[in-house]
Specification:
Blueprint (H helix, E strand, L loop, with lengths): L4 H7 L7 E4 L3 E5 L5 E9 L13 H23 L3 E4 L12 E8 L4
Length: 111
């Protein structure tokens, strides 16, 4: 596998995911290997490197993604009382495809 799990596995359908919200440009789903009690991921459906490198996606793609992040975060906060919204860049970004984590609860033990 290359360095873009989201294009190569999720968006291609090779790795099935439980979808939370899907629009023409954005997909929100349950993380395939959750690190928190609630661990959701929001991604653009086209390859974009990171929050600071949107390629030719520009401001409209940023708005599309953040609109879905807001919806997902509001639902998690309503259900669980709190949430975190996190995105990583550089060496902290494991998959080289912009993704936003919506998290709630305590971190899960690693196996």
């Amino acid at each position: 596998m290359g360095d873009d799990f989201y294009c190569e596995q999720v968006l291609s359908g090779r790795t099935p995911v439980r979808k939370i919200i899907e629009t023409d440009t954005v997909l929100a789903f349950e993380h395939t290997q959750p690190a928190y009690g609630v661990h959701l991921v929001v991604i653009p459906k086209r390859h974009v490197l990171s929050l600071i490198d949107l390629g030719d996606g520009g401001d409209q793609l940023l708005l599309d993604v953040m609109t879905v992040v807001r919806q997902v975060a509001a639902a998690v906060k309503d259900e669980h009382g709190a949430c975190r919204v996190v995105t990583n860049m550089g060496r902290y970004q494991e998959s080289q495809h912009w993704h936003v984590h919506v998290l709630s609860g305590e971190s899960l033990p690693t196996t």
